[in-house]
Amino acid sequence: VHFPGKVTEISLPRPHGKSFAHRSELKQAKRIVVKLGSAVVTRGDECGLALGRLASIVEQVAVLQNQGREMMIVTSGAVAFGKQRLRHEILLSQSVRQALHSGQNQLKEMSVPVLEARACAAAGQSGLMALYEAMFTQYSICTAQILVTNLDFHDEQKRRNLNSTLHELLRMNIVPIINTNDAVVPPPVPNSDLQGVNVGLYDSPPGTDDAKLIDIFYPGDQQSVTYGTKSRVGIGGMEAKVKAALWALQGGTSVVIANGTDPKVTGHVITDIVEGKKVGTFFSEVKPAGPTVEQQTEMARHAGRTLASLLPEQREEIICCLAELLTERKEEILTANRKDMELASATGFLPQPLINRLSLSTSKLNSLAIGLRQLAVASRDSVGRVLRRTRVANNLELEQITVPIGVLLVIFESRPDCLPQVSALAIASGNALLLKGGKEASNTNKILHQLTQEALSIHGVSDAIQLVSTREEVEDLCRLDKMIDLIIPRGSSQLVRDIQRAAKGIPVLGHSEGVCHVYIDADASIDKALDIVKDSKCDYPAACNAMETLLIHRDLLRTPMFDQIIDMLRQEQVKIHAGPRFASYLTFSPSEVKSLRTEYGDLECCIEVVDGMQDAVDHIHKYGSSHTDVIVTENEETAEQFLQQVDSACVFWNASSRFADGYRFGLGAEVGISTARIHARGPVGLEGLLTTKWVLRGEGQTVSDFSEQGSMKYLHENIPVPQGGFH
Amino acid sequence: VHFPGKVTEISLPRPHGKSFAHRSELKQAKRIVVKLGSAVVTRGDECGLALGRLASIVEQVAVLQNQGREMMIVTSGAVAFGKQRLRHEILLSQSVRQALHSGQNQLKEMSVPVLEARACAAAGQSGLMALYEAMFTQYSICTAQILVTNLDFHDEQKRRNLNSTLHELLRMNIVPIINTNDAVVPPPVPNSDLQGVNVGLYDSPPGTDDAKLIDIFYPGDQQSVTYGTKSRVGIGGMEAKVKAALWALQGGTSVVIANGTDPKVTGHVITDIVEGKKVGTFFSEVKPAGPTVEQQTEMARHAGRTLASLLPEQREEIICCLAELLTERKEEILTANRKDMELASATGFLPQPLINRLSLSTSKLNSLAIGLRQLAVASRDSVGRVLRRTRVANNLELEQITVPIGVLLVIFESRPDCLPQVSALAIASGNALLLKGGKEASNTNKILHQLTQEALSIHGVSDAIQLVSTREEVEDLCRLDKMIDLIIPRGSSQLVRDIQRAAKGIPVLGHSEGVCHVYIDADASIDKALDIVKDSKCDYPAACNAMETLLIHRDLLRTPMFDQIIDMLRQEQVKIHAGPRFASYLTFSPSEVKSLRTEYGDLECCIEVVDGMQDAVDHIHKYGSSHTDVIVTENEETAEQFLQQVDSACVFWNASSRFADGYRFGLGAEVGISTARIHARGPVGLEGLLTTKWVLRGEGQTVSDFSEQGSMKYLHENIPVPQGGFH
């Protein structure tokens, strides 16, 4: 184990003397010691404190303390504070006279005397404490100063005194701030702690090709610790910290060593750790049985490459086998599902619609199996399809072929039937897959995943699909940007939005909103208008392709058609909100909309008046989400202009917005609906899980052969590709 | 104009009494007053200071002061500080006795007396100043306290005294901290300042559908100021701030009003403003002649929609016209180009290669025109192509057609020939385009853009392509995520990396690195190996498709082939670095590589030894960048396995890596090379600038017609699409 400096340590003594096994348990910590590495409290130049960081630390400690925890700080920084203070005082006394006569910038230009660390510590201690006190006062928290030396711990009596002092302070809700009594101890080794890249412990010298942050460190791994010279970390630095951490762990205190200066984590590192997030290195005595999520991703990518290289009929076979298992082993599945249902009802936390979605039945499993068999057929024509073939020159042939994207992460809520569906999609497209399901379906997901692996094993690729522990935080998974190529959230639009926010650097396939419009033109057929509005709004109001705003041609106001539409909506108990222009036409209007961009997702909609087709298009461009928009008219010319102009993923003429769906479009299987403008748009089928690669076969050609002096010429002839052509 | 609260103001008095016209000039500000709104220094609950923000403000002020500027702070926060302090003292005195007996959490449970603001201010002032002093000391900066009341400014003598005090302090390099003497003035109106959404001034009540932050505010716009009741901003809040800003502006002081609490900007808001970034609202007396970049984007999107709706032959005509203009008006172009060249030589900042790329000539313009005419032909078959046609049911037909992506932002360096090329690509694909060129080519770019607009005007879409002012910061452009759909950087890999980092939420088409491998198999032909290695490394070493690592089968070590390859590389003056395994085979090895992931971009490469094809594939997967990888072998089976397994955008057999290029692939025009895994991969032609939309034509069908009780059935019949079929 190699490790860098610049660390913040945090240890979480467990009341009953047993350390926590998992990060997720850190939430329960009652007493927390925050030890600040000197790099955390000082600035890079070591002159002066890093005030912003210090303030952030105080804020986080205050938040935790005010949650009822007992917080302690082991600080450093007195030397830095004192050095800056002494330097300043000395320069000031030298310079006041000159400054008065000759103007500014004197201070900076003067030479700084070399200052002794012990003197600095003495001069800085009181100022540092005053700063802590002033800062904690802002959170109604009292602090107390505790100065100790090494020897204090060797004296039994002193140790007992210290212990009882600390206990008394904690009992009085006071935060003890502990520091070395630097004025009476040997000065610290300079820079012992400040080198190296920094986030926690690494498995190789930080900065080298293979260095990876160790997420969880087990005492058993200590043998492999090598204090590499490359890491330039002094003995007083990280080795001592690891030893202290292991010693604390033996005493039942959990420890996390993390970087307190990384701009990516600064601001929340302490509270993030307590919330169980993957920050720094967590010391644990309990080695979990399974692989870490990083190991799972690696295994999946590796097996996925084999999956991709299978013959299409082999992938088809795996999917058919999974379909078979779903019906053959339905008793096991339903038993596990009943267990989840019972737990969900017992806790009573889950709302009824979610419980319905959680439940499986024989008929659900049967139709799931039918869907999988259809997908198996579709899978024949996916990976390795030749899209384009070009004769670049004589005996130099180029092909563009479809290949899997790589490793997919699918995050789904509640519905366990999602698991075999998504797995089959991944198998059909040759992609590796990480599955993260909801906790409420964990028993069902577990058996379904086992069956999936069983099916995969017939061609030796059972690792290609991995089920991620429910303990993993979605946010942590979204950070694996070097390992995951595409994230597909399947669930509420809130889930999608959260993931889009968290997934920095990984593309997300999905849509977070569907503000769909139906425009009733002046030339609309009354029957079609009624049917389409009713179906678009009422068939399934929570769907993303449901109508949210009804746009009506102004000539239709106060016509029988208009009255019938309103009557129908009232009869269907749709709550109507009026757009500003619609409201201005009415004497007694319904409540005016707050925003024309609202996605109601319920039996509610907005009605607005427009001057005509062009005005409707402008409204849709201004307030829509480019999902699905509909025109109802009998005028073909108006319709074609609407279809051409509206810049949405789906544009319909005289058809319900609810048709915007992979199954209804006949795409075979639906991966999701995308409102992104690149890669895949609208309902996405299997091809949304594929990308392409270019394969060039030559006989030693170089580009200089094609230069003006060269012997060869580009031909660039298209070679026709047969439908469904494979290499 | 409506506006929210929570503001930090910053004013930049110009020494000679004239305010700055543009944000970019703010860098020159010598004297800066930072006024902190009360929301900036207090926490949300108004009890206590926002210490992190305060520390960050101190740090930024210190940085600017230490750059030699004269900084002043107008603070607030004494009341908050004092309120918290008094509350704490009172509670403490009440509770110490109880706490000693009954344990913790007493403080929180006790009732807090109502405190008078003036008393709080008096109690807080000294603490606040002590905090400022302690903080600034950490940056070697002295502070001074100045307390004033309204009346002090009405008394001529007092004003003069104040003025001379401030001047003297600034002369001595001391930061004056100015505050109201709250103890002797009427208490402030509570919350007058704390409502609303917050980043600066808005053109509509913040939070409504249309509200946009005003980037630059001109005094002439003041008539349109409406202090809307919706914004809930008291008179003492924003109106007073705008008035003060305009008054300061009249006196020659530039003002920026910005949000100091938005987490997106906090941390750097003050230094960002001084660096000229688009933060908050800038007050300027000089109204720029042209539209803002936001207006340009809107204009481009609007005209782009018309461009997209033109007939293919009309877009073709525009491109041909542009090609014509490039030769017809070459004198104008070359004159402007000479001006740029002279300026570049005169300043002497530009390195020679960049100057070469800047220069245009008649022959360059001619070949540019030829390229454009080829693109015109290719453009016929781009927008509106039918990719798929499905009969969903009787009289319900679905089409998937190609459409433009929307608004592209192309950022290019030096080479002005990029402008007509990229413009022609945008026209061919029906996309709107924002162009951001380098300052060094501004004259050439200007005339080339004029000609482009001239060509566009033949079909009334001259606004579809906009040239962005050279003053605009790339970083600010990358923030327009609701307005721009795709960014294409054309330039160095550093430019691409910077833009990928800055472009949060907007996809970037490009590659930041190309670590390409050539693997020489045991069955390689010696001649092919020599030619391919030489061409791949030496033809153009700076290209992204040049070889960086040469992988050699271990059986080839110490064979004549191996020696010839090394001799050839030496002859071509290629510096060789040894991979760890290669180094271990040699007695006197070249310098060992630092990382096997290095992109040298020069006449340098790494050589590593592998056990065979499979080992080469593993090496490429571990250390490559998935750009272009090559196998040299005569064994077809080995080759096909390599082509199948290597997971890169381009995989070649017996051909130079330098063929990875849009022109060489015969794509007609190259948009760029992408190493992304979605949307477009490898060399990208016109189709990389297109997306699709789904068009459904029905006669009133609803999805309930297809339910079990319904009357209709899905057919999902494929309707064949003729090659190049258009709707």
Automatic annotation (TrEMBL), chains A, B:
Domain Aspartate/glutamate/uridylate kinase: 30-185
Leader peptide range in chain numbering: none
Protein name: Delta-1-pyrroline-5-carboxylate synthase
PROSITE patterns listed in its UniProt record: GLUTAMATE_5_KINASE, PROA
UniProtKB keywords: Amino-acid biosynthesis, ATP-binding, Kinase, Multifunctional enzyme, NADP, Nucleotide-binding, Oxidoreductase, Proline biosynthesis, Transferase
GO cellular component annotations of the record: mitochondrion
UniProt pathway annotation: Amino-acid biosynthesis; L-proline biosynthesis; L-glutamate 5-semialdehyde from L-glutamate: step 2/2; Amino-acid biosynthesis; L-proline biosynthesis; L-glutamate 5-semialdehyde from L-glutamate: step 1/2
EC number: 2.7.2.11, 1.2.1.41
Keyword Transferase appears in the UniProt entry: yes
Family the entry assigns: In the C-terminal section; belongs to the gamma-glutamyl phosphate reductase family.
GO BP, sorted A to Z: L-proline biosynthetic process
Database matches in SUPFAM superfamilies: ALDH-like, Carbamate kinase-like
UniProt xrefs under Pfam families: AA_kinase, Aldedh
Reactions that this protein is recorded to catalyse: L-glutamate + ATP = L-glutamyl 5-phosphate + ADP; L-glutamate 5-semialdehyde + phosphate + NADP(+) = L-glutamyl 5-phosphate + NADPH + H(+)
Record-level Gene Ontology MF annotations: ATP binding; glutamate 5-kinase activity; glutamate-5-semialdehyde dehydrogenase activity
Classification via Gene3D superfamilies: Acetylglutamate kinase-like (3.40.1160.10), Aldehyde Dehydrogenase, Chain A, domain 1 (3.40.605.10), Aldehyde Dehydrogenase, Chain A, domain 2 (3.40.309.10)
InterPro entries xref list: AceGlu_kinase-like_sf (IPR036393), Ald_DH/histidinol_DH (IPR016161), Ald_DH_C (IPR016163), Ald_DH_N (IPR016162), Aldehyde_DH_dom (IPR015590), Asp/Glu/Uridylate_kinase (IPR001048), G-glutamylP_reductase_CS (IPR020593), G5K_ProBA (IPR041744)
Domain Aldehyde dehydrogenase: 292-582
Provenance organism: Oryzias sinensis (Chinese medaka)
